[in-house]
Amino acid sequence: MGNTDSKVDFRVAVVQLTSHSQQIEPNDESFWDQFWSDKISSAQDIFALVPAAEIRALREELPSNLATLCNKLVDRLQLAAENSCHTHREQTAAINCVRLLTRLLPYIFEEPEWRGFFWSDIPTGQQQMTSNGEYVSKPPLAERLLQTLADLLFCPDFTVASKKKKGPENPEDIHTIDSCEYIWESGVGFSQPTIHVPSNDRNRTEILKLLLTCFSETIYMAPTVDQHSRPNKWLAYFTSGQNRQTLPLFTSLINIVFSYDPIGYLPYNYLLFTDTREPLVEVAAQLLCITLDNSSISSTDQPNTSGEDSPNLFLNYLSRIHRDDDFNILLKGICRLLNNPLIQTYLPGSCKKIGFYQELLMLFWKFCDRNKKFLFYVLKSSEILDLLVPILYFLNDARSDASRIGLMHIGIFILLLLSGERNFGVRLNKPYTTRIPMDISVFTGTHADLLIIVFHKIIVSAHQRLQPLYDCLLTIIVNISPYLKTLSMVSSNKLLHLLEAFSSPWFLLAAPDNHHLVFFLLEAFNNLIQYQFDGNANLVYTIIRKRQVFFALSNLATDASTITKLSTRNTMNKQTVFQANSKSNSDSEPQLNRDFIPQPNTNAPGVISNAMITTLAETPSIHTMTERTLAASSSLDDNNLRTRSNTTNESSPSSTRPASPPLSTTTASNLFPQNDNGLWSATSEWVQSWKGKLPLQTVMRLLQVLVPQVEKICMDRGLTDESEIIKFLQHGTLVGLLPVPHPILIRKYQPNSGTVMWFRTYTWGVIYLRNVDPPIWYDTDVKLFEIQRV
């Protein structure tokens, strides 16, 4: 009953504040004290008792009351910090100020005229006065708020455990302690044992959520270069040297995330005990994602990814991590948490499953992108496969879910980044023995087989809006192909099935960039044949068995009448590129009847809620995201190099060049006009412009040599079993018979403004949907993305 009365009193104060009849005087301390008294016990109470409509009305009709309330809240927080929150009353006041500011700030940010309020100069009448009667200028409200929050995150007996004996005679002063001795968890850069206090976790979580809210001004700006060319002032100040807590806070955040073990030692522990650590870990991961963001986006300049000279000290500290022991802590933590949703036990539901794996994937991306030493450590480590498997699991699990397209993007972007390095391709040759629950074809093979099978599944049965990612998926396969020693029969069939589908005339002529997919696949086949022929008898057998696919490509019609006929069929017969009668689909995979005629490039939705999803920025093209480089000579086995060095040059000069999509969309579009419906249509000139560049020489030479040999041995020995033919191919050789090996071309990820904007939109979309208790940004006028209801 008493608690209900307290809430009524708080509600009365809110109504009085928003009343149209009166302006509350700033010096009415008894009135303002009601907002941070112990009448309120949770953030949920604040959100229920301070409705959105009343905040907007206060902002529009009584702006002076809102301004005074914000000033009073920051002043009270600052006073609590100066007193080091020694008493329960001070702690309650501080945390309620934090909750109320978390409620108010989104409504201040959604109104452009109010965004400068926290950065404006303090009026003379409200400044501090010295004993001489002179006014001392205060820093802007935003700076005072951010520094106070940073200090409160290292306040003994409030957010960190005290290191001194308790008692009024031994208080610890928040302004004199060394915060680096109070880092929240041992790990990177800090080895001292720490004490876990649940109340400290709860207070940290509330403060970190307010910091997220402070930085969320970004989501109230449209996703344009003009809007995001200026740095976020809140973020710039907090990550700069003006914040004295940057180092201990950065260290605390990464250690609290990567030391977290949701399982523990007791089955069903999460049902027996309240876990105060997981909400803290989740918001810490989200805050890291935001503080490690680029501060601004330029339409012309490439983003700086080194971080070493960045004014953002969080990026600077991340780029300077270099000890193997620290890298090991980070990598083991990421692997442990990403594999958590995959854990299977004999006791159903006995292990706690985390929900913040998207934030973890974003953090891994940022760590690899900003610290190349960490990336190379990951690539050298055998644990890279412990990262690959959960990523492939998430990709396969989310492939048909429109609400998780953002998760698909981040997973594929990470694999694209890794595939640009030789060690990743080499590591994929390790046998895949761990079995996790995925609805894919049963196979015996390597992690490379797993990757190809999952990619095939994504393409043939995924959501239509994933089509812009096909280039990325095939680029990854091309990048790893020179290093894959042995592909299984299942994955070999999958690759041929993709080529068969993408090389069908109606699909090739359906869009100006569709032929790029054929170029990527042919380049992958050439890499495997030229550099890994000896171990890939399964693939060679599959190529021989499906040789008509290559013959059809070689004989693709280019005359105008046939092109017109096929193009007309495209518009009349809307069928899926993957038909159920495809013989290469021998493992009885489910087929979809989706329309694969290209659709307008709309924003794809992505994230995690069953009720709401958020839109994403446009996916950058593969040409924007990657730069082509030649692989180092050490990237191949010496034996393979010696074997191929004896080959003869019987092909045209184009055979010595790696396959590459020859035309940009802009160039291609000039070769065919639009039809009467405003849609483009293929022309004979367009087909001729790329058909002659198809890198078919290596495969055609292989077929020319091996097909007669296989046919002869089948007739001579009466072979009907494919295993016998494969055994024959394993002992075959093409030394001196193939064209001169082409140089290996690797497409490495390169930072660009398009991916910066995509990651910013995706990150904030995830944070928006994950923070629903309380719903910090719900029903506010967000501009960075759209919120769609499912």
From TrEMBL:
Residues 642-669 have a biased composition (Low complexity). Residues 579-604, 632-671 are annotated as: Disordered. InterPro entries: Hid-1/Ecm30. Residues 579-591 have a biased composition (Polar residues). GO terms for cellular component: Golgi medial cisterna; Golgi trans cisterna; membrane. It comes from the Eukaryota. PANTHER family: PROTEIN HID1 (PTHR21575:SF12). This is Protein HID1.
